[in-house]
# Entry
Amino acid sequence: MYVEEVLREYELDMLTIATLASHSSLQIVHGAKTEGFRTALVVLRDRFWFYSQFSRLVDRFVVVDSWSELCTERVVSELRELNAVFIPHGSYIEYVGLDCAASLPLPIFGLRSLYRVEADQWAKISLLREAGIPVPRVYKAGESFEGVVIAKLPGAKGGKGYFVARTPQEVARKIESLVRLGFIKDPSEVLLQEYLLGVTAYFHYFHSPILGRTEILGADIRYESDVDGLRRVPVAISLELGLEPTFTVVGNIPLALRESLLPEILELGMKFVKATQGKLPPGIIGPFCLESVIDRDLKIQIFEFSGRIVAGTNLYIDGSPYSYLYWEEPMSTGRRIARELRLAIEKGQLSKVLT
Ligand code: AMP
# Structure
């Protein structure tokens, strides 16, 4: 396999942890440095000034004019010379595109075969369902439904273009305008999900192929514009103004979960790991996130997952209440990635965590 080939050319005691300068990259390089690795950031020219403020954490900047340059010969060979292992984060696919993301000729920490599943809303929800994880009801555009639905477009673009609708006619009207605006090509790509009532909670996990266990590293709530802002506007006024909520993430809020919910939440994470191992061997590697709504009866339903590090982990750069219980030292998700790589090197099992 080609990862093994690349690794044969690498000096394994001189690995560099590399990622795109965005999303959770500062956490990733901070964790890598703490674990004694060299680091590299691929950075957009106009953001270089910002990331250079943290140059103590970055051994090499690879400056690009657009993210799509990641897959070019120049960038790939520069990173290979550094013995780079690439860490994909939540914005990776959105920035470089699915084809480059999946075929990047560098060892990737994580399961790259999951990217094609993540890009397809229908495949995504099927994977959760096959894992035995409770999910909301789903419908196709044109089908009748009860209550309110949230419409999701292909690819995760931070909720961009999503809308809420009350009737199939409203769905048809809104999809038509999204097609006209070029947001989507085919209405069948749109997934309608039952709009769940409750509080949103995002669980951060880490699956370790080296230790053979799944850890819960934290949880957060996303602060989303303007659906969270609308809470300040009395409902009557918002209806009068015809306000259509958007779900653009502007930040994250920490969350300590009721301890009685933790066994079920960890079990959901383990079910997800098992499903990926069955369907996409060797299965998920490292960080992933299940996104939930917890209702008034404490029923947890998962409406989405991310197979990579999510930005909510940035809250816990110095460790979370849960990671401390496993590690007794400040263990962010970024540092946990580097720790897994270090353990893998020590045990001669690097190919277990790379694809
Ligand atoms: P997603 O791209 O799936 O993470 O969705 C963006 C945001 O939409 C989430 O963070 C939630 O606030 C909201 N959302 C998504 N799916 C649902 C659902 N089925 N019910 C209620 N809210 C949802």
